[in-house]
Each structure stands twice: as C-alpha cells, then as structure tokens.
Design brief:
Layout lengths: L1 H20 L4 H28 L4 H8 L3 H7 L2 H19 L11 H25 L3 H8 L3 H8 L7 H11 L4 H10 L9 H18 L5 H7 L6 H9 L6 H10 L4 H18 L18 H6 L1
Length: 303
C-alpha cells in the first residue's frame, strides 16, 4: 500500500511544481500543498504498516521515526492505520466523483488531436534536447527544474505549462514559436490569432514544429513521403512561411512529416480567412486603368 500512495505523492508533487511554474494563484498553490501534506500522512501510516507486515519490530519503527516505542505503537497501531486508509479510500472515491474529475466529453476527434499534439510536442522537445548536447542534469540545473520532471516532460508523461515549455526551448537553443501552437492544441485551445500576420506566423510555426518533431528530415525525404505531390521548392516555401500555402499543399506536408491534417486545419483556416479579409475588393476602373477596348464603342457592343 505504501508504494501505491508514494506514486500518488509523486504525481501530486509534480502537479504542485507545474502550478508554481504556471503562475497559479496562492489559493491553488496552498490547496495543492495541503493535498500533498495529507497524502504524506497517509503514506507514513501505510509505510509503517508495510514494515510491520515484514516483521519489522516496534523498536526499529520507533528508531526510524525518532520516537519512543510507546508513541510509535499508539500513533501507528494496526487498527488506527486501517481506519486512516479507509478514510483515504472514501476521499479518493469522492474526488473521482467531483466536477473536476468528470470524464472528458469532447468529441473523440478532439481528444485524439490533444493526444497527438502532446506526443508531437514531446518529440519536438526531445529533438531540441538531443541537438543541444545537454545532459538532463545540466538542463535541470539551468532551468531550476528537477531532473525527474524534465525526464517526464521529454517522455510525454507530462505536458507542462507554457512558461515551462518556453524555458526548456530557450535552454535548448530553439524557437518557442515552433512549439507554441502544438502546446495550445495539446491543451485543447482553439486558434486565437490577433491579425493576419499573427495567424500566418502561427501557421508557419506549427508546420515547423511538426517538422521538428519528425526530426527535421531533409527536404527530399519530405517530398518522397508526399509521394511526389510536393517538390523541393514547395517544401522550402512552406518552411519559410513567406505566404499562406494552399490547403492541399499544407495537408500534404503535414501528412509527410507524420502529422494529422485535421489537427492543423483550424490554424490554416484562420490564416486564410484573414488573408481574404486583408485583400482589397476588386479594383475600381480608373482613367489610368481603362483598356483601349473600354473606349471602343464597337467592341463594347460586342461584349
């Protein structure tokens, strides 16, 4: 039982750390700390019970806890610990029924997009980490994160807050813009560009992020993966982001680098709709733009 509670402590501790780095308010931080303290108390009782079941004497328990034998017996007697663990079971059951634990009711496609983006985000971070040549310990020291937390992020065991992602990307020498949209999709957030420039930048960023997650293959490999539908010039233009590509080319590129086009469609639509809105309406006919046919009555009648 002690090991099971220890695993929960591990999760609660990282939730607290993530909230700290995410800038959570004091109320949330203290609430998470209280949950951690309460679970620690349960762990101590369970650990003593486990030790007693392995025939550890009360004298050894007392010595480990720096208490008298009599105090140890009273504090962690079998019946008292069992009542504590039963209370914990009731609390855990209530937590599972709380609003915060209501199952995700988003469409299946949305949940799958979140999962894919989480894996792609971790893959992109791993690629940057490998390219940096830094050891996990060095990354932890540089970012003031724990080595185990960094490892969990890189192994897609944990999707951290954006400030943590940005800090890691900058430590690895990467561009945060390449991972911002992937992180937003992993959080289930809809696209929210400020204007056309922002939308186009975000679209290019997520395309480059998917390319990074795929290991930044050579352009020819991307062309081959598209079954020849994309040539090298088209791939380079997509990566440079000099203009909004067609949806056909966007979808082909995303598929070629191992992504899912439907996940990126909202980003493309946002950029394309703003592009259309930024375009001027059909040009008005002015004296300088009139063609010779406009001044020819016979040709005008024939039109």
């Amino acid at each position: 039982m002690g090991r099971l509670i220890a695993e929960e402590l591990y999760s609660l501790a990282f939730d607290l750390l993530e909230a700290e780095y995410g800038g959570a308010d004091l109320g949330e931080l203290l609430g998470r700390a209280r949950a951690l303290t309460r679970e620690t108390d349960y762990y101590v009782g369970a650990a003593v019970r486990d030790a007693r079941q392995r025939s550890v004497s009360w004298e050894e328990v007392a010595k480990a806890a720096s208490l008298s034998t009599a105090t140890a017996r009273v504090r962690w007697g079998e019946m008292k610990v069992m009542r504590q663990l039963q209370r914990r079971s009731v609390e855990r059951a209530a937590l599972r029924q709380s609003p915060a634990a209501v199952p995700d009711v988003r469409p299946k496609e949305g949940r799958e997009a979140v999962g894919r983006a989480s894996r792609q985000l971790a893959a992109a971070l791993s690629q940057l980490h490998q390219g940096s040549g830094l050891m996990i310990r060095e990354v932890a020291e540089s970012t003031e994160l724990s080595p185990s937390y960094v490892s969990r992020i890189l192994s897609v065991d944990r999707t951290p807050s954006w400030p943590v992602v940005r800090q890691l990307v900058e430590t690895f020498g990467g561009d945060p813009l390449e991972l911002r949209v992937l992180w937003e999709i992993a959080q289930g957030l809809p696209p929210a560009p400020q204007d056309f420039i922002d939308a186009a930048t975000r679209l290019n960023g997520v395309l480059r992020g998917l390319y990074l997650a795929a290991g930044r293959p050579v352009v020819k490999t991307v062309c081959d993966q598209s079954n020849g539908a994309l040539d090298e010039a088209a791939v380079e233009e997509l990566l440079e982001g000099t203009e909004v590509p067609t949806w056909e080319d966007t979808g082909r590129f995303v598929t070629a680098v191992g992504g899912h086009p439907a996940d990126i469609r909202p980003q493309w639509e946002a950029a394309y709709s703003l592009l259309l809105g930024a375009c001027d309406p059909a040009p008005k006919v002015t004296e300088t733009s009139r063609s010779p046919q406009d001044d020819d009555p016979q040709q005008a009648e024939g039109r």
